[in-house]
Amino acid sequence: MPPTAPSAAITPVRRRPVPAARRRPAPHGAGGRPPARGRARTALRYAAPALLGYLAVRLFGVLVLAKWAHVRHHGIWPTLATSWDSNWYLGIADHGYEHALHTDQLNNLAFFPLYPLLVKAVAGVTPGSRATVGLLLAIGLSLVAAWGVFAVGDRLHGRRVGALLTVLWGALPVAVVQWMGYTESLFTALTAWALHCVLTRRWVWAGTLAALAGLTRPTGIALAAAVSLTALTALVRTRRFDRRLVLGALLAPLGWCGYVAWVAARVGRWDGYFAVQKLWDNQWDGGIGTLRDMRAILVYANRPPLFLVLVTLVLILSGALYVLSLADRQPLVLLLFTGALLLVVLGSGGVYFPRARFLVPGFPLLLPVALALARARRPVAVLGLGAAALSSAWLGAYMLLVWPGPP
Measured in whole angstroms, how far is the alpha carbon of residue 62 from the centre of its chain? Predict the structure, then answer.
């Protein structure tokens, strides 16, 4: 049950009253409340247009990728299921983690455990290879993520904005990774529903989902910080003790901190996880490396690779969208999450090319765009979404079939 006094840290949501003629009575159980199955079915029907729009965009992207792969004599299944980081996750599912820190080679302890554990668990009770299971899990979880993205947008600005936000998330320049054997879909699903739980003041659920996100990706620390700080801010502003707020704040960082502590114990040094990241040339330097790479690509390179130019533009636009999010006065938890995510991604001095992919879970950054499309005339909105879908399909195929490195 939510607290009786609304938190000042959560922006109140104003909804339009639904005309009586359009209201449909929900199915009720013996206690007067709709049964859980009925509520879920009703919520799914409500989100169906957004999910169908998301599916249409992603299926179009896969069709373009399949055609391009056929022309280049590539197989689409290995490209999506067993390339680059997918192989690392499958290796963890097959053989587990390294037992020691070898300073002369890369180490799979850099990859967080929840996704490979899910792949191993599901593959143990289903037919097919673990690679197939991993890909199908990613696709299924992308739909859960899309539903969560819609739920956040609908909660804040209504159904239309929620649907537009969902389609925009599916039409990101690097959205193809949502249907690969990667962790972006799982992490975004946990993030979206954790943020929704904060907006609806279900603090224990929010903390639990944030803890699971912390077991999924290194950027889980951004979500943990957002949930914990928002809960503590609400606790201070309401000036009343609420054990659910405290429990949610304490649960949120447990996943990320727990894995970092486990790696430290496994390799026998307190900074074990950070030493592993150093092997991958991934250290936080406050953004100096990012600015240096941007300058090299945009100023000094005669013919910079198209993909690196795309990554640079995504980073610049993400910063601009965060400024717009601040101007729109988004709820505190959204601003904290996207701000911390940008701080981690832009502040890293490691490899440059995956930065656009690292920002895929930052869907609240797209809210200003969704709001602008919702206010625009229908032809303008259709043209905008169509252009996003076309560019996403082409860039996704280019990234996987032409760009020689990982996405």
Answer: 20
Q: What are phi and psi of 348, to 5 degrees?
A: -80, 140
Q: How far apart are the C-alpha atoms of 177 and 137, rounded to whole Å?
A: 13
271 phi/psi in degrees, rounded to 5: -105, 30
Alpha helices in 109-242 (DSSP H): 114-123, 130-157, 159-170, 184-199, 203-214, 220-238
- Please name every residue paired with 284 in a beta bridge, in sequence order, or none if there are none: 348
340-367 pLDDT per residue, tens: 999 999 998 888 999 999 999 999 999 9
For residue 65, name the pLDDT band (cuts at 50, 70, 90). Answer: very high
Report d(CA 293, CA 155) in Å as an integer.
38
Residue 18 CA, distance from chain mean position? 31
pLDDT digits (tens, 9 = 90+) for 13-45: 444 444 433 334 444 344 445 677 778 889 999
Crossing angle (nearest 10°) for helices 159-170 and 36-71? 30
Classify residue 245 by burial, with Cβ atoms within 10 Å: 0-12, 13-18, 19+: buried
**Token representation of residue 224:** 């943990």
**3-class secondary structure, 54:** helix
Global pTM value? 0.91
